[in-house]
Amino acid sequence: MCGIVGYIGRQNAFPILTKGLHRLEYRGYDSAGVALLNQENELNIYKVKGRVSDLELFCEGKDISGHAGIAHTRWATHGEPNQANAHPHYSQSESLALIHNGIIENYTVLKTGLMQKGYTFQSETDTEVLVQLIEYIKTGNNVDIITAVRLALKQVVGAYAIAIIERQNPEFIIVARKSSPLVVGIGKDEFFIASDASPIIDHTDKVIYLEDEEIAVIHRDKAPQVLSLANVEKTPQTIQLEVSLSELEKGEYPHFMLKEIFEQPQTLRDCMRGRVNIDCNNLTLSGIIDHKERFLKARRIIILACGTSWHAGLIGEYLLEEFCRIPVEVEYSSEFRYRNPVIYPDDIVIAISQSGETADTLAAIELAKKAGAFVYGICNVVGSSIPRNTNSGSYTHVGVEIGVASTKAFTAQVLVLIMMAINIGKEKNTIPNEQYEHILSELNQIPEKIEAILEQNIIIEDLSKTFTYAHNFIYMGRGYSYPIAMEGALKLKEISYIHAEGYPAAEMKHGPIALIDQDMPVIVIATHDGTYEKMISNIQEIKARNGRILAIVNQSDNKVKNIADYVIEIPNTAECLSPLLSIIPLQLLSYHIAVKKGRDVDMPRNLAKSVTVE
Ligand code: M6R
């Protein structure tokens, strides 16, 4: 989704800003722009439809001098992706330039009012309304720019992270946030602004995360001044980032997605570190143990998430019901927040989000908190909004995930849910000791088993050629493999633009089987578990209708292999851990099909890495 970068210091701002925009490209965008304040106090804006590299080309031969500037990548919400709608936007007098992430919901009312006062607009965006409103308040009330920003934001309904630069005030940039992240990097006599930490890591590891409804004035050579919308001075907390630059580079891999798929043995080890102690047969999640009574008393668990994280949540439902005997409901955050749900004070809500910034999940959390529920976050991005707005939680610790299609974050979310279920189950005595020890010992072997699957990458790449013809795919699974069928299908559609659906295999007979013919690839996850024999019947039904079957089977399989057209073998493991293995070949298959089709795997069309608007 949209990205913000800003710089004020003694260096040339332009290369810092464009490098920062490149770092944010993974978030997804359709246009890019920059505003620079030069030594003559001229405020130059350059913007283009297209990539950051198009912006760099467009700026060649233009005045790109200046030691302060703001820059933006836009993912269109109001108005099509074109040059006029790209940010930054000037105010009417061209003395202010503003960039914005989020949505100003009441922009139509504000715009009508401004038009009646003689303001004209160059774009269809809600953002331009905000910059005009700030200028109108500044000139109309004869107040300084900081006050004008504060008063304007009090009139705004919606979500925003903004950065504003003023021609008459080259010594500072103003930033503010509400429900959309904003980070300020602290250098020596220079400051960096960004919508996430990735553009800042090149320059400093000291940052301040702005809180909701805070405004910060970022001066060139003094500490940021932070105010609330009510004009109360705040003392920001400086945080040390723990991200290494290599996490932001592809290294030897052609795409971040492939790199991230291959990182999974290590990311799962990192996720277990300090939590699973195989020598003592023990597993502890501090976020659970610190609130043990709450979990032991829980009448119900509600899992809230979107997209891939929701698929992890579905696996969580199977795990928590099996090992903790607590009823679980899994909800799309976007539906939950608008449907007047019943929430009890003794409910536990688990919010799952890689980015920690998903707008719908954040809003659903607020609703749950208001009803008195205890909210547990499972997030990847340290310091993001969800961990800061939940009562407790666990980080997935997979490092930065750049590929828009989530891979390593998904497996770590599933792993955290496995650890939660067996930790709570152990505390509640709802998991037999023998089973607990068996799962721990199998868990310990998961990274190696994933390594073994990754060794089949070339075979899977070869297999992918067989399927590039298809316009539709069906994925089928049962039990723990049903969410994996849905996740496999989502991975394929996100990056290859091929239509794919994941179904619980037994549901095929109730409708979808009508779609099966010799052109329909059917991917079945048929590992050895409680429903293996049933799955075989479902596979026979597909075969009887000439469907082309690719089956994910265990190495010990001797039945499905004889029916399916193609098979990929994965190692055996405990049933509840099978999602951690069965998803790996499906990630690789989607990746190779998308590459064969010439797709932009890391930045698929229309998608954003972090969905910060609803
Ligand atoms: O950051 P989150 O986990 O909250 O994001 C939720 C979804 O937007 C995300 O999982 C999306 O479906 C991914 N593109 C999946 O690959």
Topology:
Blueprint: E1 3-8, H1 13-24, E2 31-37, E3 43-49, H2 52-59, E4 68-74, E5 89-90, E6 96-104, H3 107-116, H4 126-141, H5 145-155, E7 158-166, E8 169-178, E9 183-186, E10 191-194, E11 206-209, E12 214-219, E13 225-228, E14 233-234, E15 238-240, H6 256-262, H7 264-272, E16 276-277, E17 282-283, H8 286-289, H9 292-297, E18 300-305, H10 307-324, E19 328-332, H11 333-336, E20 347-353, H12 359-370, E21 374-379, H13 385-388, E22 392-395, H14 408-428, H15 433-454, H16 457-467, E23 472-477, H17 481-496, E24 499-504, E25 521-526, H18 532-543, E26 548-554, H19 560-563, E27 566-570, H20 578-596
Parallel strand pairs: 18-19, 18-20, 20-21, 21-22, 23-24, 23-25, 25-26, 26-27
Antiparallel strand pairs: 1-4, 1-10, 2-3, 2-4, 5-6, 6-7, 7-8, 8-12, 9-10, 9-11, 11-15, 12-13, 13-14, 16-17
Helix pairs in contact: 3-4, 4-5, 7-14, 7-15, 10-14, 10-17, 15-20, 16-20, 17-20
The structure holds 5-amino-5-deoxy-1-O-phosphono-D-mannitol (M6R).
5-amino-5-deoxy-1-O-phosphono-D-mannitol binds at residues 306-309, 353-355, 358, 361, 404-406, 494, 607, 610-611.
Structure, briefly:
With 614 residues, the protein is of the alpha/beta class. It has 20 helices and 27 strands.
